[in-house]
Amino acid sequence: MAYDTARIRADFPILNERVNGKPVVFLDSAASSQKPEQVLRAMDEAYRHVYANVHRGVYAFSEAATAQYDEARAKIARFINAPAPENIVFTRNATEALNLIAYSYGRTFLKEGDEVILTELEHHANFVPWLQLAKERGVVLRFIPITPDGMLDWSKLDEWLSPRTRLVTFAQVSNVLGAITDPRPIIEKAHAVGAKVIIDGSQSVPHMAVDVQTLDCDFMAFSGHKMLGPTGIGVLYGKLDLLEAMPPFLFGGDMISYVGFDGARWADVPLKFEAGTPAFVEAIGLGAAVDYLNALGMAEVRAHEKEITAYALERMSEVPGLSLVGPADAEVRGGVAAFTLKGIHPHDLASLLDLEGVAIRAGHHCAQPLHQKLGVNATARASFYVYTEPREIDALVEAIYKAKVALRK
Amino acid sequence: MEDLYREHILDHYENPRHQGEIAGADIVHEETNPLCGDHIRMDVKLSADGTRIEDASFTGDGCIISQAAASMLLEEVVGKPVSEVENMEPQHVLDLVGAQLTANRVKCALLGLKVLKTGLKMHKLK
Prior knowledge:
The complex is a heterodimer of chains A (409) and B (126). Chain A is built from 14 helices and 17 strands. By secondary structure, chain A is an alpha/beta fold. In chain A, helix 2 (37-49) runs antiparallel to helix 10 (280-296). The radius of gyration of chain A is 22 Å and the shape is globular. With 126 residues, chain B is an alpha+beta fold. Chain B has a three-stranded antiparallel beta sheet with strand order 1-2-3, covered by helices on one side. The chains are: A alpha/beta (409), B alpha+beta (126). The A-B interface holds A 345-348, 351-352, 354-356, 362-364, 368, 371, 377-378, 402-403, 406-408 and B 1-2, 4-5, 10, 35-39, 61-66, 102, 105, 108.
């Protein structure tokens, strides 16, 4: 069946809203996506019909909620082709998943002088935890630089990889530049020196088919709310032997197998990492989001976004004074278009666009070091998803022209 | 669209009052709004008894609202008693700006006042 954006949009009630008297043009899905009826309904039904705390109760509600929670974990495992549901640890979001790795794996297995290779374009979520580890443990950080055309210069990797390299971590798709990195050659090289590889999949898992076994990455982190799911639920994928060797990150209920006055033993993976009542309704919602994406087909989702991105790049580059950052070829670019406009601060632009109902983001998009490299304080960013239509790109461009007139630029 | 950036806001942005640095300033303080990277530095010269703002100026880099609001604020407070700034309500700056601002943009408008107030406070603690 052909990709039918109009039919998809009908599943997203919020897209019928009006903002400042205009139909909303939502172009900030890279920050957080909108949710289809199917996800809203799955969560609503869980609260209305089977709600009770998971894992503890022996009564029907608890059994049903536990079964749905487990099923959500299995769905997510299948979605990224993880070997088993046990490879999936639920977290609050990608940030917490990356912190879990930095705390649990980093502080257990890395020592002074060990090296972590990351990149200049990382989101703060995959930047600050490593800065902190470097500060506390004397771990050395190296940053793969960006190229003038907005990609990563991985040639440095060969130079830097050594037996001291313990971790290589990077975003598969940049949330600002859109640059897509092919992880396979990087992972092969890193494994050759015994380093483990973490992929920040926050901007890839929602937008393209990702297969963790083919990639052979050691860890992957992503957020539910960027892939049609609710807030408060994220995923850490890890290879089982690594997760088993890692100590817990948070302690309390649900993560133990035995507790006495003399100590405690941990539950098996993944529950070892899920202390306290988990966000199981949110997990069920994320399971429904995965069902929705599967029904669309991730290859089709990527093809749609590539088309929209190519159209956006074409239309936006027509605007005088507008400079896009990131690669010009939609083939190697995810659905984000960050840009600056001569003489207009991104914040002013975003406010003016809001008056036209057009929602874009302005600022550093949690990638301040990257903006320092780009030599700008801030950029404006439009980002696209399953429901974005060419008409919305036209509305964006028209609103940019209006803003230029309003500010006499 | 024109309402948000009315003439007097654009005027302050394009022709900022009290812009620059003051040689021998008693107070130099700067802050950045982490949300958008807007940056403002305020230089203040106090009267001999320290109770009046003899001169003040700002430099900065950021959106129209943040920079225009700083300009309007200084136009208002230069020559006034320090206590007037210390007791100034944020709403006063929003009234000077005059446009309807959303919550996140209010932070832009109030950055200058925040820098000025914090600078004065830190000077007192010295």
